[in-house]
Protein backbone atom coordinates (compact mmCIF):
# COMPACT_ATOMS: atom_id res chain seq x y z
CA UNK A 1 0.00 0.00 0.00
CA UNK A 2 2.74 2.46 1.00
CA UNK A 3 4.71 1.61 -2.14
CA UNK A 4 1.67 2.59 -4.21
CA UNK A 5 1.94 6.02 -2.61
CA UNK A 6 5.67 6.31 -3.37
CA UNK A 7 5.26 8.86 -6.20
CA UNK A 8 3.34 11.11 -3.78
CA UNK A 9 5.38 10.56 -0.61
CA UNK A 10 8.71 10.97 -2.40
CA UNK A 11 7.61 13.86 -4.61
CA UNK A 12 10.01 16.76 -4.26
CA UNK A 13 7.28 19.21 -3.23
CA UNK A 14 6.15 16.88 -0.43
CA UNK A 15 9.71 16.29 0.75
CA UNK A 16 10.51 20.02 0.75
CA UNK A 17 7.26 20.77 2.62
CA UNK A 18 8.03 18.14 5.25
CA UNK A 19 11.61 19.41 5.49
CA UNK A 20 10.35 22.92 6.31
CA UNK A 21 7.70 21.64 8.77
CA UNK A 22 10.18 19.42 10.60
CA UNK A 23 12.84 22.13 10.65
CA UNK A 24 10.43 24.64 12.19
CA UNK A 25 9.21 22.01 14.65
CA UNK A 26 12.79 21.21 15.60
CA UNK A 27 13.58 24.87 16.26
CA UNK A 28 10.40 25.28 18.31
CA UNK A 29 11.25 22.14 20.28
CA UNK A 30 14.71 23.37 21.22
CA UNK A 31 13.23 26.71 22.30
CA UNK A 32 10.67 24.81 24.41
CA UNK A 33 13.51 23.00 26.19
CA UNK A 34 15.51 26.18 26.82
CA UNK A 35 14.43 26.60 30.50
CA UNK A 36 15.49 23.03 31.32
CA UNK A 37 18.75 23.33 29.39
CA UNK A 38 19.67 26.42 31.42
CA UNK A 39 19.63 24.23 34.54
CA UNK A 40 21.31 21.24 32.87
CA UNK A 41 25.07 20.52 32.79
CA UNK A 42 26.37 21.12 29.28
CA UNK A 43 27.53 17.50 28.94
CA UNK A 44 23.89 16.33 28.96
CA UNK A 45 22.58 18.85 26.43
CA UNK A 46 22.60 16.50 23.40
CA UNK A 47 20.41 14.02 25.31
CA UNK A 48 17.83 16.26 27.01
CA UNK A 49 15.70 17.62 24.11
CA UNK A 50 14.61 14.17 22.95
CA UNK A 51 11.80 15.06 20.54
CA UNK A 52 13.51 18.01 18.79
CA UNK A 53 16.59 15.87 18.21
CA UNK A 54 14.39 13.14 16.72
CA UNK A 55 12.80 15.60 14.30
CA UNK A 56 16.29 16.99 13.56
CA UNK A 57 17.42 13.52 12.48
CA UNK A 58 14.43 13.27 10.13
CA UNK A 59 15.00 16.79 8.83
CA UNK A 60 18.55 15.73 7.89
CA UNK A 61 17.17 12.59 6.21
CA UNK A 62 14.70 14.67 4.20
CA UNK A 63 17.44 17.12 3.21
CA UNK A 64 19.61 14.24 1.99
CA UNK A 65 16.75 12.71 0.02
CA UNK A 66 16.01 16.06 -1.62
CA UNK A 67 19.70 16.19 -2.62
CA UNK A 68 19.50 12.63 -3.98
CA UNK A 69 21.60 11.15 -1.17
CA UNK A 70 21.08 8.68 1.68
CA UNK A 71 22.53 8.01 5.12
CA UNK A 72 21.65 4.67 6.78
CA UNK A 73 22.74 6.01 10.17
CA UNK A 74 20.52 9.12 9.95
CA UNK A 75 17.62 7.02 8.66
CA UNK A 76 17.99 4.55 11.54
CA UNK A 77 18.26 7.30 14.13
CA UNK A 78 15.27 9.09 12.62
CA UNK A 79 12.98 6.05 12.50
CA UNK A 80 13.69 4.82 16.02
CA UNK A 81 13.64 8.21 17.75
CA UNK A 82 10.59 9.52 15.88
CA UNK A 83 8.54 6.55 17.05
CA UNK A 84 10.04 6.34 20.53
CA UNK A 85 9.71 9.98 21.49
CA UNK A 86 6.58 10.52 19.44
CA UNK A 87 4.72 7.74 21.28
CA UNK A 88 6.39 8.69 24.59
CA UNK A 89 5.15 12.29 24.38
CA UNK A 90 1.61 11.22 23.49
CA UNK A 91 1.51 8.94 26.55
CA UNK A 92 3.04 11.59 28.81
CA UNK A 93 0.51 14.20 27.76
CA UNK A 94 -2.38 11.79 28.25
CA UNK A 95 -1.11 11.17 31.79
CA UNK A 96 -0.58 14.91 32.23
CA UNK A 97 -4.18 15.68 31.20
CA UNK A 98 -5.46 13.09 33.68
CA UNK A 99 -3.66 14.93 36.50
CA UNK A 100 -5.21 18.31 35.69
CA UNK A 101 -7.92 19.76 37.88
CA UNK A 102 -11.29 21.15 36.71
CA UNK A 103 -10.02 24.74 36.97
CA UNK A 104 -7.09 24.19 34.59
CA UNK A 105 -6.62 26.95 32.03
CA UNK A 106 -7.89 26.16 28.53
CA UNK A 107 -4.48 27.15 27.11
CA UNK A 108 -2.76 24.41 29.14
CA UNK A 109 -5.18 21.79 27.85
CA UNK A 110 -4.84 22.96 24.25
CA UNK A 111 -1.05 22.94 24.56
CA UNK A 112 -1.11 19.32 25.74
CA UNK A 113 -3.43 18.36 22.89
CA UNK A 114 -1.18 20.17 20.39
CA UNK A 115 1.83 18.26 21.68
CA UNK A 116 -0.06 14.97 21.37
CA UNK A 117 -1.02 15.71 17.76
CA UNK A 118 2.44 16.93 16.72
CA UNK A 119 4.26 14.04 18.39
CA UNK A 120 1.79 11.54 17.02
CA UNK A 121 2.64 12.98 13.61
CA UNK A 122 6.31 12.28 14.29
CA UNK A 123 5.64 8.59 14.78
CA UNK A 124 3.37 8.50 11.74
CA UNK A 125 6.11 9.99 9.57
CA UNK A 126 8.48 7.21 10.58
CA UNK A 127 5.95 4.51 9.64
CA UNK A 128 5.04 6.16 6.34
CA UNK A 129 8.65 6.56 5.23
CA UNK A 130 10.04 3.29 6.63
CA UNK A 131 9.73 1.51 3.23
CA UNK A 132 12.02 4.11 1.67
CA UNK A 133 14.74 3.78 4.29
CA UNK A 134 17.83 1.58 4.21
CA UNK A 135 19.66 0.46 7.34
CA UNK A 136 22.87 -1.43 7.96
CA UNK A 137 23.89 -3.63 10.88
CA UNK A 138 26.33 -0.87 11.85
CA UNK A 139 23.67 1.84 11.81
CA UNK A 140 21.35 -0.41 13.82
CA UNK A 141 23.86 -0.97 16.63
CA UNK A 142 25.13 2.63 16.69
CA UNK A 143 21.55 3.82 17.05
CA UNK A 144 20.94 1.23 19.77
CA UNK A 145 23.91 2.63 21.71
CA UNK A 146 22.65 6.21 21.25
CA UNK A 147 19.07 5.49 22.38
CA UNK A 148 19.99 3.30 25.36
CA UNK A 149 22.54 5.89 26.46
CA UNK A 150 19.81 8.52 26.13
CA UNK A 151 17.54 6.43 28.36
CA UNK A 152 20.29 6.15 30.96
CA UNK A 153 20.85 9.91 30.92
CA UNK A 154 17.10 10.51 31.24
CA UNK A 155 16.14 7.97 33.90
CA UNK A 156 19.33 6.98 35.69
CA UNK A 157 21.00 10.39 35.72
CA UNK A 158 17.70 12.26 36.13
CA UNK A 159 17.65 14.40 32.99
CA UNK A 160 14.23 13.32 31.69
CA UNK A 161 11.95 16.03 30.18
CA UNK A 162 10.21 17.92 32.95
CA UNK A 163 6.65 16.95 33.77
CA UNK A 164 6.44 18.02 37.46
CA UNK A 165 2.95 16.56 37.95
CA UNK A 166 4.25 13.14 36.89
CA UNK A 167 7.46 13.15 38.95
CA UNK A 168 6.08 10.60 41.43
CA UNK A 169 5.61 8.13 38.58
CA UNK A 170 9.11 8.54 37.16
CA UNK A 171 10.20 4.99 38.05
CA UNK A 172 7.36 3.47 36.04
CA UNK A 173 7.83 6.01 33.25
CA UNK A 174 11.51 5.06 32.99
CA UNK A 175 10.67 1.36 33.06
CA UNK A 176 8.14 1.83 30.26
CA UNK A 177 10.58 3.91 28.27
CA UNK A 178 13.17 1.13 28.22
CA UNK A 179 10.52 -1.31 26.93
CA UNK A 180 9.46 1.26 24.33
CA UNK A 181 13.06 1.36 23.12
CA UNK A 182 12.98 -2.40 22.59
CA UNK A 183 9.67 -2.22 20.73
CA UNK A 184 11.00 0.50 18.40
CA UNK A 185 14.06 -1.55 17.47
CA UNK A 186 11.94 -4.67 17.00
CA UNK A 187 9.69 -2.72 14.62
CA UNK A 188 12.69 -1.25 12.82
CA UNK A 189 14.25 -4.67 12.38
CA UNK A 190 11.12 -6.12 10.80
CA UNK A 191 10.09 -3.05 8.77
CA UNK A 192 13.48 -1.82 7.56
CA UNK A 193 16.64 -3.73 8.50
CA UNK A 194 15.52 -7.19 7.41
CA UNK A 195 14.71 -5.97 3.90
CA UNK A 196 17.91 -3.91 3.74
CA UNK A 197 20.21 -6.88 4.16
CA UNK A 198 21.40 -9.41 1.62
CA UNK A 199 22.75 -11.77 4.27
CA UNK A 200 19.91 -14.27 4.77
CA UNK A 201 21.47 -15.62 7.95
CA UNK A 202 21.08 -12.19 9.59
CA UNK A 203 17.51 -12.00 8.29
CA UNK A 204 16.28 -14.82 10.56
Order of helices and strands: HHHHHHHH
C-alpha geometry: globular
- Fraction of residues in helices? over 70%
Annotation, overall tally of beta strands: 0
Radius of gyration: 17 Å
Number of helices, where a helix is a run of at least 4 consecutive DSSP H or I residues: 8
Structural class: mainly alpha
Task: Describe what you observe in this structure.
The structure is a single chain. By secondary structure, this protein is an all-alpha fold. Helix content is 71%, strand content 0%. The protein is built from eight helices and no strands. It has helices at 6-9, 12-32, 34-38, 50-66, 72-99, 106-129, 137-155, 170-196. Helix 5 packs parallel to helix 7. The protein is globular.
Question: What key phrases describe this protein's structure?
Answer:
204 residues; 71% helix; mainly alpha; disordered C terminus; 8 helices; 0% strand; single chain
How do the helices and strands line up, and which of them pair or pack?
Elements (H helix, E strand, L loop, with lengths): L5 H4 L2 H21 L1 H5 L11 H17 L5 H28 L6 H24 L7 H19 L14 H27 L8
Helix pairs in contact: 2-4, 4-5, 5-6, 5-7, 5-8, 7-8
Give a short overview:
71% of the residues lie in helices and 0% in strands.
Amino acid sequence: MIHMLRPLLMHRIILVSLFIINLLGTIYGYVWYEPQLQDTPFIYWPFVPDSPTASLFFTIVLGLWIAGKKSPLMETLAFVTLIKYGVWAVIMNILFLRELGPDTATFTILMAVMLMVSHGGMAMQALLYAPFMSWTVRSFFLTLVWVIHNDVVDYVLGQWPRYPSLAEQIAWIGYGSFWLTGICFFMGYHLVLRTSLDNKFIRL
